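QUALITY CONTROL LOG
STEP: pairwise intake check
CHECKER ROLE: data steward
CRITERIA: each record must contain a sequence immediately followed by its structure tokens, with no blank fields

ENTRY 1 OF 2
RESULT FIELD BELOW
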Amino acid sequence: MLYSLTRRALTGSAILLFATSAVPAIAQEDTTLSIGMAAVITSLDPHEDSNSPNNATSRNIFDSLINRGGSAENKPQLATSWEVLDSTHWRFTLREGVKFHDGSTFDSEDVVASLLRARDKESKAFASYTRNIAEVTADGPNAVIVETTVADPMILNSLSRIRIISSDYADASVADFENGKAATGTGPFKFVSYTPGDRIELDRNDDYFAGPSEWSHVTIRMVPDNGGRLASLLAGDLDLIEALPAEGVDRVESSDGMHIIRGQSTRLVYLGMDVARDQTPFVTAKDGSALGTNPFKDERVRKALLMAINRDAIVDRVMRKNGTVADQFVAKGFFGHSEEVEKVAYDPEGARKLLADAGYPDGFAMTIHGPSGRYVNDSEVLQAAGQMFSRIGIDTKVEVLPWSVYSNKYSDGEYSLFLGSWGVNTGEVSNPALAIVAGRDAEKGTGRYNGSGINIPEVNALLDEATSTLEEAAREPLLKEVSKLVFNDNWLLPMHYENVVMGAKSNISYKPRGDKYTLAYEVHNSAKTE
């Protein structure tokens, strides 16, 4: 639920939110947990690269000022309360008595160093969240003041994304985090070891301020191969796995000592297209010669591609109902969903006509790209889409790559047509729009993951206004208009929202989160009697 500011807050009256943290009565026993992640993380530096696997993993070791809950609610974490001083100044009161894993005391200097490090990092991976931060200053040892460049209605969400590190490591390298030297947080688990592409070993932080985890040791294994992840669960080597493959549902349900955990997510899967270059590298005439133009710049071609995809069949057969067909950033009921977005139906004949109208009566040839093992049945979804494009006269080759190879290339715009995704963790439109359709502007912090090269002045202006408007009643119509403009002109081709389907041993309980994060601290041993 979004935190709504009243008109009184804008005139200087403070709004405070206070923490009430119940510490669970859990005996500190020796218990181990093994989690199978569906994707490989790309860095243990919590400010180096912003993607769901990295951000979920970092939350095991590091805390943030704000704890973003599984239903996208803002909860106190290292900040116990906050108040609005005026439209561009927020004061955060910090939790006292918190220690880093090395025994040093957490204070305001650590918050200042962390927020500015995330803002000023060369990678600019967190620019969507830090772009409005003008300054962060200590207000004594137990409070900080965050100044924003404009009124920022999403500042709490933004701060929930940024992990707090010790100020001693503000200048640490990526390697220092990955070898453990700087991987010192205040979170529920302590770094033990990291083997890139394979696993992370963690030990329980017995002094965690919210109470110790019931797991004394956690192993997080990266197993992007669906078959391998399923086999490890069935063999008992893993206690809980992400993204249970559709072909494994029956096997888990029929196995003694196993069960399936299901839930809803806000993750949108879409196809992006290069709409920026006059000639795009992976599209040619059918004989392999260069095309004079980039077909994706024509809205008729983009709509033809969407009409060619039988999204209902993909959700039903390829994903085994582990998804819901999408038409825009967020589903009905979420902030910024527009009823004016056209629902495009499967219509291959109509798609062929649109291609002909656009000057491609015989189609063309293209290679489309996507990851393997990052999203639910991602390579199979891309293969199915490729076959459907071929049926309307577009000769289509499909190339899938490991996520670690693919992730930077697609977001940097190296491909012509690609499979992308965004977890809409805020439950509203500005979060995905700023990252994947706003014009790429490093100084403003927009478009960091806009691999399509979309740059629509009207959308950019609407987002500028929406993200500096504190009153929700005034902000929502702006975001609805963004949704309408993006999807009625088919700048992105929406595929589906992913459902959460996990496999687990029968003694494991977990409440799936909307952001699809798998957090060890929230995993419980349901067979244990406290």
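ENTRY 2 OF 2
RESULT FIELD BELOW
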Amino acid sequence: MAGAPRIPGRHLALALCVGAGRALSEEWRASGLHRWATSRPRPDGFGVAPRDFRPPDVEAGRAVLAGAFVLAGQTLATGVRGDPWDRPSPSRAFAEALHRFDWLPGLIAAGPEGAGEGLRLVLEWRRRFGRWNGFAWAPEVMARRVYNLACAGPALAARASEAEVSQLAADLARQARDLLGAGDVADAAERAACAAVAGAALRGVGGRRLLDRALAKLGRALGQTVDAEGGHATRRPDLALELLFDLQTLDEAMVQRGMAAPDAVQRAIDRLAGAVRFFTLDDGRLAAFQGGQPLSAPYVAAARAQDEAADRPTAASLGGYQRLDARHIQVAADVAAPPAGAWSRSAGVAPLALSVLVHGRRLIDATAGRGLGAAATVEAGELPARVLAGAPGSVLGPRLVDAEVVVDVQRHEAPGALWLDLAHHGWMARYGTMHQRRLYLDTLAGELRGEDRLTPTARAQGPDGRHFIPYALRFPLHAGVRALVSQDRRSVLLRLEGEADGWILRNDALDIALEPRAGGGAQLVLRGQRRADSGARVRWKLAPARQLPAEAGS
């Protein structure tokens, strides 16, 4: 289906406008006048101690005490009481985590010695970067630093002199005020929530005014970020969880101050909690779609422990996703178009992709990339979408553009069965083809049956309609899943690590192969040829292996 006419150069024009505005903003934020304006009124030290409900990484804190920072999967050895600020970081991701103070919660959890080392590191950071630094004061970095400092502030203050406490509180207030004027819509709710937590933590008129201003901005930002069902505008389950954590901390800090969080915050907490319930799969981790991460089960459980409505039934659909649940098998499917604009910086175009768990363990994964090549769906050509690159991408970020994908969804329920009839029209304009997918879950037998059709339209039935076009149906396998393809190439035995039994994936495709998947691991790929004027159909079934097929081979 065709969307609105595309204006040539529109992304470059937008990038020029955004880039110019950003340059002016950074010049203003680096100025002495702005520093003066954001330094007043000064708070009267720390009052309450906001509680971060995220589980702290105590081992990471102990590693810092031993002289090593372990962040973003990498390690920087500084030696005991070393200085991480005077040496290069091993990667940009490491540097961002370092300046976000991601190490601070673990240090505080390590006890009084950790709090003392945290105070020393924060004061060293202040000496080097406290006035202004384009990287360290970037909104996406500063938001987490403000949050971590607000939660750790009272513990640091207990080890600090009176003058140091005054400096810490003033620095926190200044950074939080600056945070409210920087950034874009995609992180506005996070920035406002972090600034509000800082305002709740600080005493005096400086803290009260900061809190009032942050709450006003937060209410508006939540309306753009959290939909009525609780889905995050990025369509990422993990970002819904992270925002829930921030709002839970804010709500608890305001209770400590004898205040009630605004209705907009309370509504967002209730909605996000419902979304987290929906996205938590049988292994206790999140569904991982649209560039999100599944996160660990204890991490997810920490947010759900605050959910007062945890006993409510889980919804069957939410935010463009569907779930099919049976006793031994669970399916999650992405059944909506990807997000647009600034919300799409990590999004992927993989319509009708699915994730499958068996016996509470992941068997077939959701997409690990941003396209069809690693997703559990059909690839029959290029979809009309791309990741913004070049000069526009450097300013606007690697957002998706031209992702004109329309998805149709019908859900059906009957005794002993649940099924979805799905279709997407992403190939319609370019190839005159529609992908239709039926997912049928037999809840009594514990079997998942699928049928994927590539259906041509009249546009494809021209004079060259009899030519053949290749397609591929992919099933990315979770790490540790072993696959044995039968000799007749009509079935595959899938076995989870540590389990004697397995699952059989049967199919009627022309060919099946086990291939590497993007980002590591393996994927099953069912290949065939579709005729432009008549399309193609692949049927498949995933069922428990009641006995090993005699012809199975590697």
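INTAKE CHECK: passed for both entries
DESCRIPTIVE NOTE, ENTRY 2: The chain has three domains: 45-214, 226-312, 341-479+517-544.
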